[in-house]
Specification:
This protein is an alpha/beta fold and about 425 residues long. The chain is built from twelve helices and 19 strands. The strands form four sheets. Strands 1, 2, 3, 4, 5, 16, 17, 18 and 19 form a nine-stranded mixed beta sheet that branches. It has a five-stranded parallel beta sheet with strand order 9-10-13-14-15. Strands 6-7-8 form a three-stranded parallel beta sheet. The two termini are about 15 Å apart.
Length: about 425
């Protein structure tokens, strides 16, 4: 394996120094024979970890595959991603999660960890094979019906009780379906003006409140997907103060975009949960800094052209985000490198129990890392994305930061901003 010397790199914002990569790990000692990379002005971060990615394979390879999604992830600075279960067939058996896991290993660009479904077919009626998925080669530890809420409280309790046996996690898509039937966007002033059926904030907040009580009662681990409202932040703050074992994520787009964008009727801005108000965005940013919201997760949701370039009412919700996540977070948080590393690498790896990722890049740690040029600016061009889909809300937007290189266990997956394979 080729050795690399990153000359003059700033590790998580520290003073510039040399960083040696040898035999897949961060090393010390002489650097004879190492390939030198001039990293002057660059920042090294532990490889980013995404707990919420849709890779679509199996079943919707026209929108994304494990390989194309892995390439997009590497170009975004990620070394590990967790693939959601809403594939076709649904990842609700050991066979399907092992298929996704093996496809990730074959691609070899990031570590792809499957998330198993909570219920059979995401139908919310019967628990899926949680134990079989946990003991499979994929070693599933996170389960989610994302895209659908586990709305039945008795079934949610049973799921929390089941995964407690192996310290698993139920990741909830918090949406009371009876409050969002026919919803097209956030319920508020803008939806009223546009005449679109609203998705009320309380539909999210009510499920989070219910589930933190269930998790507290059971003593199990709960993770809340894509938190989007100020009210949800308050529920989470109170739960954490009581010691409930709950973690939460926010997406880059919910940190930056608001429901005012729906006035364009451009379906690229249609997402679930919907874009919320400016006040919600402020609350989410503050909660992320405070740690009430633990991590940033992309909810990368690629869609084929015919599913997005149509009338708003018929468009599928979702946005691609792997390649723009770090620049968006940089635009929101600024160059707070240690905070970014905590929210986008260390904490997600810790939540998932993912060894070898989210490290401090100390001698002996696996060389899972990304190099960022904070001085660069990039105009987002959808045609240049590695994802098979083009539904980015940032087309034509100038974002800060450029991923220069990504290393997975010492092997470059991205060099000079381009995928290695």
């Amino acid at each position: 394996m080729t050795s690399y010397l990153l000359r003059g790199v700033s590790v998580v914002g520290a003073e510039p120094a040399d960083l040696l990569i040898r035999d897949g790990s961060i090393a010390a000692g002489p650097a004879e024979g190492a390939e030198v990379i001039d990293a002057t002005g660059l920042v090294a971060l532990p490889g980013l970890v995404d707990l919420h990615t849709h890779l679509r394979e199996p079943g919707r390879e026209d929108a994304e595959t494990v390989e194309t999604g892995s390439r997009a992830a590497a170009l975004g600075g990620y070394t590990a991603v967790f693939a959601m279960a809403n594939t076709s067939p649904v990842a609700d058996t050991a066979g399907v999660v092992e298929q996704v896991w093996r496809l990730g290993r074959e691609a070899g660009l990031v570590d792809v960890q499957p998330i198993g479904a909570v219920t059979v077919g995401l139908a919310g009626k019967q628990l899926a094979e949680l134990g079989a998925m946990a003991t499979s080669a994929a070693g599933v530890r996170i389960f989610s019906d994302d895209g659908h809420c586990v709305a039945d409280p008795r079934l949610m309790r049973r799921a929390l009780e089941y995964v407690k046996a192996f310290d698993g996690i139920i990741a909830q898509h918090a949406e009371e379906p009876r409050l969002t039937e026919g919803a097209q966007m956030h319920e508020g002033e803008v939806s009223t003006r546009l005449g679109l059926t609203g998705w009320p904030a309380v539909a999210e907040e009510a499920i989070i409140a219910r589930d933190v009580l269930l998790a507290e009662h059971v003593g199990s681990r709960l993770h809340i997907c894509h938190v989007s409202t100020a009210g949800s932040v308050e529920v989470l703050r109170q739960a954490k103060a009581r010691g409930v074992r709950v973690t939460a994520e926010v997406t880059p787009h919910h940190l930056l975009l608001t429901d005012e964008l729906a006035a364009s009727y451009d379906p690229v801005f249609k997402v679930n949960p919907p874009l919320r108000t400016a006040a919600d965005v402020r609350a989410l940013r503050e909660a992320l800094v405070e740690g009430v919201i633990d991590i940033v997760a992309t909810d990368h949701a690629p869609h084929a052209v015919e599913d997005k370039e149509c009338e708003w009412a018929y468009a599928r919700p979702g946005m691609v985000g792997l390649e723009t996540a770090l620049p968006v977070v940089l635009s929101v948080l600024g160059e707070r490198w240690d905070l970014i590393a905590e929210r986008m690498s260390r904490t997600p790896a810790r939540i998932a129990g993912l060894t070898g990722h989210g490290t401090d890049l100390a001698v002996g740690d696996p060389a899972n890392l990304t190099l960022v040029d904070p001085s660069a600016r990039r105009v987002v061009d959808p045609s240049e994305l590695a994802s098979r889909s083009r539904n980015t809300p940032y087309a034509g937007t100038t974002l800060p930061g450029r991923i220069v290189a990504t290393f997975l266990r010492g092997k470059p997956t991205v060099l000079d901003g381009k995928a290695v394979k």
